[in-house]
Design goal:
The chain has 20 helices and 9 strands. The chain has 450 residues and is of the alpha/beta class. A hairpin with a 4-residue loop joins β1 and β2. α18 (407-413) packs across α19. The protein is globular, with a radius of gyration of 23 Å. The chain binds adenosine-5'-diphosphate (ADP) and magnesium ion. Adenosine-5'-diphosphate binds next to α6, α11 and α13. Magnesium ion binds next to α6.
């Protein structure tokens, strides 16, 4: 059985292969290795030959590494890089990302695991799966657009990307764009902003989206209330469908329930087909667990598999989380005989972990203060020097993003500030995050502390 570290590494390797050209892969990935995981300090330690390589990692691989580390351990681990003190030669070969890879996908690379082969069919998803398979064979045909909706963690993104893989399998030169709706919105806003200085930016944006055979766009509900982006998407949509190009979308709710979605978009969307995925029943949950166990090389007795399937019912992502937790347990205790009783114990720890994930405003204030070397009363106070104002705005932004608290309540948690102040802070940080790398880094680091 592969250890957790090996699993994280092999998944990351697969990802690195998908984004790099062969020479870049050699340069940036091959010389690195995973030194270890320090659960106490919540660190995942990566050895690289030089700090130049680690800088490159920050941009290309760290987000995926964090995601994979969480997937396999259920802990938020922060990457830490070590390298030899001796100056090493700087890699000199060209390092451009993804240029000659045959399966070049625009936007975000497809997740290599999200294939039809790895997708377990059950009564909860068989219509959606059949529809998706049909699309892959008949791009731009009758099911255009194709929309998959349903609750979180039920396989929408998986199915959507499976279409992409299948299309590439049949036609490696197909042009595919895979993006989250959020990325579409952000790209659009950035293009508008930059088009003042450079007229070509907007054309480039439009070209990128309008010259594909297949547009995969995830979580379309993110268009809600975004009038201008909706208009842009409307034109993208028309251009593609007029040319018989395929659009596939996912949504966490039926299209008609997306607030403030333009009527013309709704009516365009309704010309296609939509399918629902729902929560898997017991048999399907067992089948999914078996599939994931095989994929990850983990072996559990039948009664334990049934125990998990019986108790973890909400969605597939939680099933995966339960498996990851058990795997960590096996890895750390070297006890491979996981009885239902042991599973109960290991999984109850998982619930504790997820409670920790529910952060409070106070924790956010503590971590932000600690990170910037300020006191909590600085954050709650009225001083508006930049050194205090920006951290305060970050803390408000995180409070809004990570807790369910209303704007007025956040205001009062920050020394009785008006809700418009909080709103302003959130908007400001949100827009700065699009262009300020340092800020992005700080916010990520603070999130990792939480
Ligand atoms: P959604 O987009 O609906 O929130 P995802 O597609 O991200 O959900 O699925 C969450 C996780 O569950 C993914 O790792 C995915 O591979 C897995 N998953 C969901 N449905 C299935 C299925 N039917 N068979 C195998 N894995 C699945
Ligand atoms: Mg999704």
């Amino acid at each position: 059985m592969m250890s957790i570290q090996e699993l994280i590494w092999s998944d990351l390797e697969q990802y690195a292969r998908s984004i790099y050209t062969a020479p870049s892969f050699q340069t940036w990935f091959t010389p690195a290795y995973l030194e270890g995981i320090d659960l106490e300090r919540r660190k995942i330690i990566i050895h690289v030959p030089s700090d130049i390589v680690s800088t490159r990692w920050q941009d290309d691989l760290v987000p995926k590494l964090i995601e994979l580390a969480f997937k396999h351990t259920q802990y938020n681990l922060v990457p830490e890089f070590t390298y030899p003190n001796m100056a090493t030669t700087i890699p000199s070969n060209d390092s451009s990302v993804r240029s000659d890879h045959p399966e070049e996908v625009r936007g975000t690379p497809l997740d290599p695991n999200y294939t039809f082969d790895n997708f377990v069919i059950g009564p909860n998803n068989q219509l959606a799966q059949a529809g998706a398979l049909t699309i892959a064979d008949d791009l731009g045909g009758v099911y255009n657009p194709f929309i998959i909706h349903g609750g979180t963690g039920l396989g929408k993104t998986h199915l959507m990307q499976a279409i992409g893989h299948e299309v590439l399998k049949n036609n490696p030169s197909a042009h595919i764009m895979n993006v989250s709706c959020e990325k579409f919105v952000n790209d659009f806003i950035t293009s508008i902003r930059q088009s003042g200085q450079n007229k070509n930016v907007m054309d480039e944006f439009r070209n990128a989206y309008r010259t594909v055979d297949l547009l995969l766009i995830d979580d379309i509900q993110f268009l809600e209330n975004k009038e201008e982006t909706q208009t842009e998407f409307f034109h993208t949509f028309n251009e593609l469908t007029n040319n018989h190009k395929q659009i596939v979308m996912t949504s966490d709710r039926p299209i008609s329930k997306i607030p403030q979605l333009q009527d013309r978009l709704i009516s365009r969307f309704q010309r296609g087909t939509s399918c629902t995925v729902t929560a898997p029943d017991l048999d399907t949950r067992v089948a999914i667990l078996r599939e994931k166990m095989a994929l990850q090389g983990i072996d559990l007795p039948d009664d334990t598999v049934e125990y998990i399937a019986d108790h973890v019912t909400a969605n597939v992502r939680e099933l995966e989380g339960a498996l990851a937790k058990l795997k960590l347990y096996i890895n750390t205790t070297h006890n491979t005989d996981i009885t239902p009783a042991i599973a109960t114990k290991a999984l109850s720890e998982m619930h504790e972990e997820s409670r920790h994930a529910d952060v409070s405003i106070v924790e956010i204030q503590e971590k932000v203060a600690q990170y910037f070397n300020l006191s909590i009363s600085d954050l709650k106070g009225k001083k508006r020097t930049k050194a205090i104002l920006v951290p305060r705005q970050i803390a408000m932004f995180l409070a809004r993003e990570l807790t369910d608290t209303s704007l007025p309540k956040i205001g009062s948690a920050f020394g009785g500030k008006d809700h418009t102040t909080v709103m302003h802070a959130c908007e400001r940080i949100k827009s700065q995050l699009l262009e300020d790398e340092k800020l992005k880094h700080d916010v990520q680091e603070i999130k990792n502390l939480l």
